[in-house]
Design goal:
- The structure holds 2 protein chains of 2 kinds.
- The radius of gyration of chain A is 16 Å and the shape is globular.
- The relative contact order of chain A is 0.19.
- The termini of chain A are far apart.
- Chain A has a 5-stranded parallel β-sheet, with helices on both faces.
- In chain A, strand 4 and strand 5 (109-110) form a beta hairpin.
- By secondary structure, chain A is of the alpha/beta class.
- Chain A has helices at 4-11, 26-32, 50-60, 72-77, 80-88, 119-126, 137-149, 180-191; strands spanning 19-21, 66-71, 93-99, 102-103, 109-110, 130-134, 154-159.
- The longest helix of chain B is centred in the middle third of the chain and has 13 residues, at 55-67.
- Chain B has a 6-stranded parallel β-sheet with strand order 2-1-3-4-6-5, with helices on both faces.
- Helix content of chain B is 41%, strand content 17%.
- Chain B is an alpha/beta fold.
- In chain B, helix 1 (11-20) crosses helix 2.
- Chain B is built from 8 helices and 6 strands, in the order αβαβαβααβααβαβ.
- The chains are: A alpha/beta, B alpha/beta.
- The interface between A and B is medium-sized, with 34 and 32 residues.
């Protein structure tokens, strides 16, 4: 297993000018990023939707890479989304999965069949042309140039340590300094999107 | 008034509204109100169809499309709208996405008693989320779709167009 922050740090040199949707890795990514106006740390608008949101971005911006850090709890809630992504097959879409095997934000209860699900195989079965799985940081580090250097869509499942939060949601540290509206407005400004 | 424009909603009229309002992507799950419309949408080069397997997915996909500068429209049935509650809350209302959700009004009737609970709960559901909506039953109503687009753009909120013509305009 690897820490989420370590996985994100390994990815960072390969980012280029990609749009990054950090998903539940947002609180770590905002500490690492050098291009916050190309990031969409929207938190958790509604569980299960990060993959769809990133797919929409990839379809709207086909000439720019879109990198998503999804979670296994989210993707389990929306497994059918894998088939939609595979059908659309955006070549600019890079789908990473942070699999900590638990619902970390609710105290660390296991997701269904947590130890036995092969998410990379699910992605392949849904029609992704490429999918890989890593549980060691050094293996991921070695593979990232090829992962990011080839066209998508690609699915990359990462085993990460659970970093569990037990404090009431209302009393947790607010890591996002920008509202969701501002995050989107900043991206649109960076990309020259108007109206 | 009993001419064709007041007895059925034609798919051509709906497609014309989509094009008039610059729709780029249709995020949709097929329903019995839009069967024939599929063939027209598929043949229209200005539209990209994004099929989903559960209607809530349409909300997050449309949210990403809008953030990326595209002009999506959602096309689902009222059953799926009711399934989509949390995604509608978070990915559309929570992200200030102004778009039109065209929703097949399964069970809608002007006559007798509605026995289909899909229809029974449709308008209470829409009202619970504070959404505005327009009923479209025939071609004479089609300009309401443009009204919905204008309202969605100004309000930065989803606006619903209920399609109350299940077995006439689209199923040929």
């Amino acid at each position: 297993m690897m820490r989420i922050a370590e996985a994100l740090a390994a990815f960072k040199p390969h980012r280029g000018d990609a749009i990054v949707v950090p998903g539940r890795g947002g609180k770590f990514w905002v500490e690492l990023t050098d291009a916050p106006h190309l990031d969409l740390p929207v938190g958790d608008p509604a569980m299960g939707g990060h993959a769809g949101f990133a797919l929409g971005l990839a379809l709207a911006q086909p000439n720019r890479k879109v990198v998503l850090f999804d979670s296994e709890g989210d993707i389990l809630m929306s497994l059918g989304m894998l088939t939609t992504i595979a059908e659309q097959a955006p070549a600019n879409f890079y789908h990473f999965l942070l699999d900590n095997e638990v619902y970390a934000t609710t105290g660390g209860q296991p997701v269904p069949n947590a130890k036995n699900v092969k998410y990379d195989r699910m992605a392949l079965a849904a029609g992704y042309p490429r999918a890989q799985a890593f549980d060691r940081l050094d293996d991921l580090d070695r593979a990232l140039p090829e992962i990011m250097g080839r066209p998508g869509p690609v699915f990359v499942a990462l085993k990460v340590y659970p970093e569990i939060e037990n404090a009431p949601i209302g009393s947790r540290r607010r890591w996002n300094t920008r509202s969701r509206t501002q995050v989107v407005a900043d991206l649109q400004g960076e990309l020259g999107i108007t109206g | 008034m009993s001419d064709a424009s007041t007895t059925a909603l034609s798919p051509e009229a709906v497609l014309a509204e989509m094009k008039k309002n610059g729709v780029s992507h249709i995020v949709w799950l097929p329903d019995s109100e839009t069967n024939w419309l599929y063939l027209l949408m598929k043949a229209e080069p200005s539209l990209t169809l994004v099929g989903v397997s559960r209607e809530g997915h349409a909300c997050s996909i449309a949210s990403g499309l809008a953030a990326g500068g595209a002009r999506p429209m959602i096309l689902i049935q009222n059953t799926g709208l009711q399934e989509s509650g949390d995604s509608l809350r978070g990915w559309l209302l929570g992200m200030n996405v102004g778009l039109v959700m065209m929703v097949g009004y399964r069970g809608w009737t002007r006559h007798g008693v509605t026995t289909d609970t899909a229809a029974t709960y449709t308008e209470p559901f829409i009202n619970a989320y504070g959404l505005n909506y327009y009923l479209v039953e025939n071609d004479a109503d089609a300009p309401r779709i443009s009204v919905a687009f204008e309202e969605a753009q100004k309000s930065k909120r989803p606006v619903v167009v209920l399609v109350g013509d299940e077995f006439h305009g689209f199923n040929r």
